[in-house]
Each structure stands twice: as C-alpha cells, then as structure tokens.
Amino acid sequence: MNPELPFFPEAASTVAGDVDVLFITWSVISAFFTLLIAGLIVYFMARYRRRHPEEVGARERTALWLEVAWSVIPLLITLVMFVWGTRVYFKIYRPPADAIEYTAVGKQWMWKLQHPEGQREINTLHIPVGQPIKLKLTSEDVIHSFFVPAFRVKQDAVPGRYTSVWFEATKPGVYHLFCAEYCGGEHSRMVGSVIAMEPQRYEEWLAGGAGGKSMVASGAELFQQLACDTCHRAADNTGRLVRGPALDGVYGSEVQLASGGTAVADDNYLRESILNPNAKIVAGWQPVMPTFQGQVSEEQLTQLIAYVRSLGAGEGTAAAGGTGGPSHGPLDSAGGQIDSPAPQTAGPAKPEQQ
Amino acid sequence: MASLADTHTPGAHGHSSLQHQFDTMEQQKESSTLGMWVFLVTEIMFFGGLFLAYVAYRTRYPEAFAAASHTLDVTMGAVNTAVLICSSLTMALAIWCAQTNRRKGIVLFLLLTILLGAVFLGVKAVEYADKFEHHHVPGASFQFHTEGGHTGAEDPNLAQHTQLFFSLYFVMTGLHATHMIIGIAILGFLAFYAWRGRYDREYHNPLEMTGLYWHFVDIVWIFLFPLLYLLGAHAS
Amino acid sequence: MNTHAAAEPLVTPGPETAFERPNYLNAAYGLRSWLLTRDHKRIGILYLISISVFFAIGSLFAFLMRLELLTPEGDLVQPDTYNRLFTMHGVTMVFFFLIPSIPAVLGNFLVPLMIGARDLAFPKLNLASWYVYNLGAIFTLWAIVNGGVDTGWTFYTPFSTSFSNTHVVSTALGVFITGFSSIFTGLNFIVTIHRMRAPGMTWFRLPLFIWSHYATSVIIVLGTPVIAITILMVAAERLLHLGIFDPKLGGDPILFQHLFWFYSHPAVYIMILPAMGVISELVAAFARKPIFGYKFVAFASMAIAVLGFLVWGHHMFVSGQSIYAGTVFSILSMLVAIPSAVKVFNWTATLYEGSISYQTPMLYALGFIGLFTLGGLTGVMLATLGIDVHVHDTYFIVAHFHYIMVGGAIMAYLGGMHYWWPKISGRLYPGFLSKLSALLVFVGFNLTFFPQFILGYLGMPRRYWAYPPEFQVLNVLSTAGASILGVGFALPLFYFIWSMRYGKRSGDNPWGAVGLEWDTTSPPPTENFYTMPVVTHGPYEYNREEVHNRMTEEKTLG
Amino acid sequence: MAEHDSPEKTLRTYILVFVALLVLTFATVLVARINFGAMNDVVAMAIAVTKALLVILFFMHVRHSTRATKLTALAGFFWLALLIGITMLDFKALGKIMDVPLQGVEAPVPGK
Hints:
The structure holds four protein chains of four kinds. Helices cover about 30% and strands about 20% of the residues of chain A. By secondary structure, chain A is an alpha+beta fold. The longest helix of chain A has about 35 residues, at about 15-45. Among the domains of chain A are: about 100-210, Immunoglobulin-like, CATH 2.60.40.420; about 215-315, Orthogonal Bundle (Cytochrome Bc1 Complex, Chain D, domain 2). Chain C has a single domain, classed as Cytochrome C Oxidase, Chain A (Up-down Bundle), CATH 1.20.210. Chain C is about 65% helix and about 0% strand. Chain C starts with about 30 loop residues before the first helix and ends in a 6-residue tail after the last helix. Chain D is an all-alpha fold. Chain D folds into two domains: about 1-60; about 65-95. Helix content of chain D is about 65%, strand content about 0%. Chain D contains three helices and no strands. Chains in contact: A-B, A-C, A-D, B-C, B-D, C-D. The interface between B and D is large, with 48 and 49 residues.
C-alpha cells in the first residue's frame, strides 16, 4: 500500500505516475456522471412522485438537441481519454534505446529470470534503480503474465513467441511480482518480488552473487558446441565449403528470402530459424540446416541470440574472426548449385538440459 | 440439430397444413424461409471459425501448406465439386417438379440427389483411405515425406505445420461430410413422403427448406475445394 | 400480418374471476401437458425452473469462493479445488444462467404477447430449445459432479488443450449443445418479430422490450456459432491431438483468444440488452410516461448489437496482440459505450414530469440505472489502453463485469420477474418483503463488489487462491457483502413460490400499465388474446381516455 | 414459388446456371495451373464467389424472396468477412511492432 494515500498502490516506476494520473482523471469523470445520474433520479423520484392513483405522466416529448448533446459530449470525452491512454500505452511498450535486456521465462508456477551478465534467479529479480530495463518474455508451457503492480506494467508470456515490456524503477524497495494469467494449480503461488536497489548496491550484489558467465560468452560457447560455426563462417581462403550465411552484422538487418519476400532478422526470426530453419530460407542458400528443436532450451536459445546480436555491426568477437563480409557468404563459382552431401547431423555434444 | 424441415407436421394439403400460429400459407412459407436463412447464417459463422483458422495459419506457414496441399488429388476434388453441383441441380428440379405437380418427378429427383450425395461421400471415403495409408492423418502416427517436392530435405518442422494443414483438412471436410449425411437423411424422409403424395403446388415447404440447406452445403464445398486442393497445384 | 383469422372467436371473459376462465395454466394438467407443451408461455416457465437451478448452483460456488478468500492463506479448500470452483462458477453463471435468463424466460413469455401474435413462429423448435438446454446441462452437471474443470470459463489454450487433466471435453460439449438452445431462441424471435406482428403494429410501435430482444437475437445468431466451433476445436484437440492451438505443433494460443472473444464479448451484450429492454418497460410503466427519445433508445439497441462485434480485442491488450490492433480495438470499444450512455440518459429523462410510483419493480429498475452507469463507465476506463495494462486480470475487472452482470442483468431480471409475475401467475407477492429484498440486494451488492475495484487497482490478481496479507481487509468486506447479497437473492425464491398458492388475486392489470400484454387477461389464455388486437397507437400512450378510466378502478398496492 | 416466371422459363434458367457452374469449376482448376504469385488466391476466390452467388440467387430463389431474407443472407457473409478481416488485422501486424523496438523511431526517453 502507498504510505501516503490509503488504498492506493505504490508508484515505483517512471510510467506509474502517468498511469495514476490517467486513472484518477477517469475515476473523477466516472464519479461525476454516476452521481449526476443518481442525483437526478433521487430528485425526480421526490419531485414527481405519484400524488393520486389516477395521475399520469406528461405527454411524450423528444428533444433532438438533448439527444445530440448526450451523444457528442461522451464521444468527445472518450476520444480525449483514448488519445491520452494510447500515449501512455505506447510509452509502456516502446523501450528507450539505452534499455538493458533481461530475460524472463515463465514455467509452470515459477519465474526463471536471467540478467544480461548471466546471473540467474528464480522468482526474484534484482534491478538497479534509474536504469530502463527491457524484459524479454516467453513461456515453456502455458500462458503466464509478468505483472508488477508497483511498476504498473503487465505482459503475457506466450509459449512459442517472444513478447517484451520495459520499466525503470525510480525508488529502491521490494515490490510484488505476480503471475496475472491463470496457469493452473499453483497459479497463486507463482509470485515473487522485484527488488530495486541503488546502482552501486546492485553492483555489489551482482559481484557478490555467483557471477555466472555473461549471456554473450555462454552464447559463443554454445555456438561452438553445437557446431554452428562449421557452416556459419565468413568465407576464408582455406577453400572449406561455406554453406551458411556469416552472421556478423546480421542482427536487425533486412534479409532477402528464397521465397521472394524479405524479413527483419530480429529475435523472432533468429529463434524461428534455429528451431524451424526452413520457414524463412535466406536467398541463395540451400536449406541444409537441421533443426535444433528439442536440443536447445529456452535459456540457451536466448544466449545464442544474444551472441548473434553481439556479432552485430562490426564488434565481432574472437569467435567470428574474418572480415565482416556481406551478410550472406559468396556462392561457389558454379552459381550456388552445391550438391550438398546428405546433411550429416552435426552431432553436437548433448548440452545438459536446464 | 433439429433441422427446420421436420419441425412442420406435413399434414394434408391446403389449410390443414397451416400451423395454428400463422394466418395464411404465404406467411407460413415466408416465415420458414426467413427462419431457414437465419439458420444458414449460423452455419456460415460455424464454418467461418474454421476458415479463419485456415487463413491465419496459411499466412503464417505458406510453404508447409503448399507442400501439404500438393499431396491432395485435384482431379478427385474437381469430380466431387461437379458431383455436388449436379446434386444441386437435381434438388432444384425436385422443387420445380413440386411446383408443377409432377409427383413422380419429385421422387425421382430426390432419389437422384441422394445418389449424387452418396457418390460424393464415396469419393471422400476413398480420399480419406488414401490419407490413412500415407500416414497423413494428424496424431501420433503422422509422418510427412516431401517426395522430391520443392523443399527436398525431410524435416520434422515442416511436418509439424503440414500436420496443421491436415488437421484443418480433416476438420473442415469432416464437418462438411457430416452435414452431407444429415442432408441425405432428411432427403430420404422427403422422398418417402413425396412418394405418398404429400407435396404439391400449394404445399411443398419442407422440400424448399431442405433445398436451401442442400444448396448451402454445396456452397461450402465450392469454397473448400479451391482453398484446400488448388493451393498446391500451381506451386509445382 | 395477422389478418382477422376465421378461427372461431374465443368467448370474451364473463364477470367470474380470472381462475374460472380458461387460461394457459388450467388449460391442461399433468406432467405430459408441461413436458410436451408447445405454448411459449409454458416453455418460458420450464426455462424459469431450469435456470433457477443453475443460478442456485452458481451462487453456491460463488459463496464458497468468498468464504475461501476471507483469509490470505487459503484455509477452506485446496488450490486445485478453488480453481474448479471459480471455473464452474463462471461456466454455470455465464452459459447456463445469464445468457438464457431474460430472453428464455421473460422473452419467451412476452414476445408473442407484446406483438399481438398467438405464439412464436416455430413452437416445436422452441420446445426443442428447452430440451437441448437440458441435454447440455446434463453434460455439464456430470462434469461438475465428477470433479469439474479447472481451466477458467475462458478455456484458454494451451492450458485447456494440453495441460489440464480435468473434464474439459464434457464441459465443452455441454456448452456446445447449450449454445444451440440459444440459437433456436434467437432464430425464433427474429422470425416472429419480422413476420407475426399484429395488424397496425409497425416497427416504431413495437415496445422497446421487443427492440432489445430483436437486437439480442441478432447477436445470438451471429455470435454463438463461432464459440461452438471454437469449443469443438478444443475438444477435438484434446481427443485427437490435432495441435490447432498447441504451440509445440505450430498452433497459436492467440488465435484461440481471437475466436473465443469474438463471441464472448457480444455475449455480454446478449446478457445486458434484454435487461435494458426490461428497464425501458419498467421505467415507462412506473413513471406512466412514454420513454424519452423512443427512436434513439431503439436504434441504440441495434447499434450495440452491431458495434459489439468489433471490439473483442480489448480483452487481449496485454496478451501478445500487436500494439496496432490494440489501438484499433480501444477506439472501437469507446464507440460502443456511447449507445449505452444514450440509453441511461434517456431513462433518466423519462422520469422528468412523470408520475413515479415506488413498487418493487421500480426499485430494481432505478437500482439498475445507477449500478449500470458505474459498471459502464468502469468499462470505458478499461477500454483506455493505459489503464488496462495495469488492471487487466485483476479484481478491477471482476468488479466491472459483476457491476454489469449482477448490478445490471440480474437486477433487471428480478425487476422484470416482479413486474410480470401477476401476468404469469395471476397472483400478487408480498409488497413489503419484496421491497426489503430489493434493498438487501442493492446494499449487499455494493458492499461485495465496490471494495473489489480498490483491490483491483492495488494489483490483486484474479483467480488467486492465496493473496498477500495487505489485501485481507477489503476481501473480508467483500465476503460480508456477499452474505447480504445471498439473502437478498434467496427471498424472492420463497415468496414467489408462496404467492403461487396464497398470493392475492392480481386482476388483469395490477399496475395500470399500457401494452398489448396488459390488454389481455392475467394469466392469459393459451391463444393469448380473446379478440385479436389491432394496434392504433404507440407503445407507452398513458395520456388517452380509455387508459384514464381504466385507472380509476385500479387498486393501489401495499 | 417463382409465380412470375413460367415453369419453362425457370427450367431453362436452372439448366443455364448448372452449365455455368460446371464451366466455372473447370475454369478454376485450369487457372490454378498457372502461377500468378499472390494473385492466385484472389482469382480462386473470385471464381468461388461467382459460383456461390449463382447458387444463392437462382437455385435458392433469393432473387425474389422477401427483403428480410435478402438482408439475412447479406449479413451472414458480411459478418464472416468481419471475423476474418479484423482478426487478420492482428495476425498481419504480429511481431512487427510488438517486441521489436521501433527501429528508426527514437523512442522519447520518458520524463527524464
């Protein structure tokens, strides 16, 4: 509860103030109209009560101006509130550029949260105050919903897809974390807390905690482990077959597809290409990539995507090496008809399941 | 679903078949036609949910749908469409015979419509059998090999989405076939009553109502055929 | 149009009291005469019995939930049982009480009477509708008895299709079959209102009760099949593992939500539009004045029916629906609120210069207008994107729809039952006791659901078996309110049954109201009218001579 | 009953409509062979809609039935279009805006 205002939730994020002002304005308007109608009814009941049994009301009368008035005025009010509400909505769902990306995976009856630095937590999320945080959500089984009342944000975690929401804590403190979409037996147990801390205390906590490898580092390690680099390599002069597009600088760019369309290489595209390579094949490449469905868990997927992102725009890490060649590697001289041998399954070492 | 046709006790001719709540035969006929069309609107929205699922998933997995649709036999589908169009004609002619007091004509064309409906179901049974044999039936036993299709690589992911196509295929054509069976059953009753001479120029309402229902089932197939069968044909 | 049929003119009633005259109650006796009846009035009473049973079952679940929520740590039942309780409360109330209540009971009874017809267009289909309702009810009762369902009345996938191991298929079949009873009623009303109006009864002489039922039937006919196919797909997916909504097989849970809410939002208008029809009748009858802006209220019903189909996305603002679609649904949801506002303003304006009497039906009607206004306005608040993100799936939503469903639909249903009970049974009910129960309902309702608005904004999620301790005070208040509301709902059941046997004879028109249903006797004969009515004036003409002299011998009620 | 048309005339219309339907069926199969790219669906649906209209207007006598029946038929297909049209509004835009930061549009840093 908000210490100052009884029966009002705490406001602990940049967007909470806007939502509260919007809500209070609407509440005042609702109270006004409800009291107006109730007041009119009570007054009319008293003023025009039936004096004697035979009394009959006045003749029928319709006033067009009145009808137009109480159609147009509510319309104007709702339009104004619509515009205001939509601005607040866009503010909630469009993260600023400097937002750090955390990941939250809903699993039946727990929240698995992961910091960019690799730190993993269950049902609690430590975040620095004053830093916009973009949360990438997905779910491993049913639909869950990441809801922090104090931040006034909520976003469903839908299995099979990434959704995201962002918030920026303004006050240190411990705030409730709920699952808002009904997800089965322990739905009401799937709660936790978001702990906002001063930035330096957050660093101390981070250092003190088990400093797991960063997402990008474990992503690079997986990239090797799953033998992705056997195909996805920049062309070099060793003459080895290049059968997959090099990935540096791919993230966020427009990719030409074999089926004629184009796609933005965003998280969803990368996730789909790992799990379902033939959905969107890059133009000029043979569909030889096997699927990794069932071999990589959700966290490993996000680590791989984080690694590919880190290859973006030239800050190629050691693993990529080679020149930041054009987004898709050159075809062999015979016009790309590599009679690809039967795709030998890469036979990656079985990564231990989470 | 108690269809409209058998809710009216097909009494003898003229006034005796006028229900007590109506005043004139004209009013009774217009009411049943309007009632039948309102029922057909519910059928449109009923199939509409499936068409939405089809449109949604086809925009999401175009290659898988094309590959799966390619395995359907277009000629069988075309033959079935022609069979249903003929059955629509014979149904219309049955009503025409009622309007011109040709009792034997009614019975003949009703039986012809039933026959054509049965032919349609027969062709469907053949197609279903073929699907079972190729393991294209969604569920545990589902396998999908693209025989040299445009995708080449046998890939479990594509199979998933083709299973989606086959799920929609079986639900849509299965629901349509169920409606055909109900239609044939009603036509059977009508043929029996027509043979007993119950319908003539003044009173053949149940015939008209069943006609509307039958033509509607034909229209559903008119849309199902291109959406399910012709999708894959031009991809090759 | 009904020309004056050559059917033998029924003998006009002599001086003996209503009960010696032939009416639809004493026309035939015995179970067969009721179970095989084709009389729309008797089918209305059969429906009254069926839905009252389900209202009792749903209320029992609701009260168990309120008891459970007295304490932050759920002490009364296990979490799994609580999930089944709120699911079955939702299913029984939505599909088996709220959707059929006013159309199937009051609508069946009154539509032919109000438009001057002898019966509905398809009487046998009307009886089939009742049997189909009971067949669906058997499936659902079987599921309840065997442990119920724990998916929520919304059956969201992939939980309902692949993760719930309760009787989802049998409940889904129950809802699927009962949907057809709703379709049959809607179809019957549309054809009857179009084709069987009395001579002279033009569209703008129709009572607003008929307008609202026409609009409701349009929604029923266009919406119900979509949930029928959606529920069928869920059942098919559970039985045959088709994967239409299973993300692992490429399906998409959001598609299920689109299909589900395409019906389920218009369904809330199926529940509230008939209630609005009843309120128009009550306000006109007890203010003895035509409804202000009759044509605007009539067209508002049709506007709600059409616009109601464009707004379902406001249930999915935070569900992964794109921002673009969310914005479109938000503006459309704002537009659909305008016709409702027009209706509320017109009802209030009707009271101006009326001659208002405070019988029980009028208390329910005035209660409806106040509570529906608050319910409607909170609805528009929820349509505002910025607020819905925070309050979606919290108790704010629970409070909003209970204000519309209980404060609106059930208050109007009770008001309608009290207003037309003399027409149905020819008897009166105790005046003071009925006014007391109306007051109890009003007070209990507000005490139950207003605290939930506050709980909602504080962030208490819905469907929670256990909640953080700081929410306990408001939950205890809510449970207290629920017990008062329970008493308020139970009282009418007793005094209505009591009045069937011992109630004072009501005479043909105890309220001195104007309308074709009040021109015939109470209870009406099986053929509805002794002489077929010819309509010459508008629906609520209280300012005419023959209305005046009928008033003089009208007895005022206690 | 189509009173105003003589039985012979009705018979002829039925036969004509029947032939037209068969021709259109044959046409839609032929047309499907040629690859028009995105236009395939439009062409296939155009043919299907004409066939459906033929059946509705002639075989189902909607041409001379009451205004209410015509309105009902129209409403049915219009609502189907509503269901598919508005839902596709979401499916088409899915993922484009939802979880991809709007490239190019510099998100206004809130309240800083």
